[in-house]
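tl;dr need the bound structure. longer version: we got a ligand (flavin-adenine dinucleotide) that a collaborator sent over and nobodys looked at where it sits. i said id run it. heres the input, straight from their email, havent touched it
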Amino acid sequence: MNRVNLAIIGGGLVGASLALALQAGAKARGWKILLIEPFAPGDSFQPSYDARSSALSFGTRQIYEQLGLWQAIGRRAEPITQIHVSDRGRFGTTRLDAGQEGVPALGYVVENAWLGQCLWQGLDRDVVSWRCPAEVSALQAIEGGYRVRLNDDTLFECDLAVLADGGRSGLREQLGIHVRTTPYQQSALIANITPGEAHGGQAFERFTEAGPMALLPLPENRCALVWTRQGMDAQRLAEVDERSFLRELQGVFGYRLGALRQVGARHLYPLSLVEAQEQVRPHLVVLGNAAHSLHPIAGQGFNLSLRDVQSLAEALLAGPAIPGDLPTLQAYHRRQQLDQALTIGFSDQVTRLFGSNQPLVAAARNLGLLGLDLLPPAKRWFARQAMGLGTRPDLRSKA
Ligand SMILES: Cc1cc2nc3c(=O)[nH]c(=O)nc-3n(C[C@H](O)[C@H](O)[C@H](O)COP(=O)(O)OP(=O)(O)OC[C@H]3O[C@@H](n4cnc5c(N)ncnc54)[C@H](O)[C@@H]3O)c2cc1C
């Protein structure tokens, strides 16, 4: 039976990034990494690389720079120079500015399909081999590792299995890893929009009674829309004709970017906060959306997972010659716990605070936004959290 050192299950944004973060060190150690993914790279149906775009934090740029990938990714990354946060129908508003924060950009918006292409092209085939298309159908703990069964009944063994198969991970369930699920009773509608005026690198976060929306700048003066609405309402918006959709969106967003001219394909994502109750076991790590899936409005899910990836790669490469021992995995998890708790808390609180219609909460939110603008330290804290720099001293010093 074939044996590898690491089996990464899921070649989405997180699984592929882990392979990249490990490959140079793995080569030096003679480790073999196997990446298993059901969809061929570039296939637009792959969950990680679908029509979505991701807001990458400044911290994420720094990590990809260290991996030598930013030059490629940056070719189609739109810098966010300002974030405009507002509450529809209220006075509260705040503006975060890259210049004021002392960074070249508050973040970058990249189409997932482009990001995926850059990641897969960066893989060193001498160290990382892949089975694609292939799906893991069963995982079994054995002495010193895991036995992995693919859907074509191929079997192999590994010292360390990394579960990066997404938020609906069937394998997590198979292994008896419980999750805490908090449904938001909302879906995110995503689509690309062409505005009438130049977006100039501005990102908009707008909170409305029906749910928060984000409009993020993309290359070629397009914008990526993430519009959160109650399930039925989101379904209706996904189905109405283009003119009605644009009229409704314009009514909610206003004319900050002139008349909205065109909308691309619309897709829906039902939203819940999902947290795995275990992230490490001997010879096993749960990573990415399989470990924690967040509400997308604060644009933090992938950025957090990439910090997990970097931390895990560092721990493994500083650990024993054979990966998978529990103390190393526990040390990794302990190191990331604070970052995970703060980022999940930040996303969840922002979502709840700005998603509530209750007058007192709405008033507090209004004061909060005004307060952010009046109190530079609070605003700075918010900006750092949004940039993905909040809990990482190593990333902080450069910004
Ligand atoms: C609408 C929306 C907008 C978002 N915007 C942002 C943003 O702006 N910024 C941000 O930081 N985050 C954002 N996120 C979150 C981000 O998309 C996720 O954090 C990220 O996709 C997680 O990647 P992943 O690789 O863990 O999981 P996935 O993207 O789900 O990938 C899992 C991979 O595993 C594969 N797989 C599944 N089952 C198996 C199996 N049995 N065997 C082998 N492979 C398998 C799948 O094919 C897939 O490629 C957003 C999320 C949503 C829903």
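gonna send this back to them w/ a short note. Confidence is low (pLDDT under 50) at residues 369-375, 395-399.
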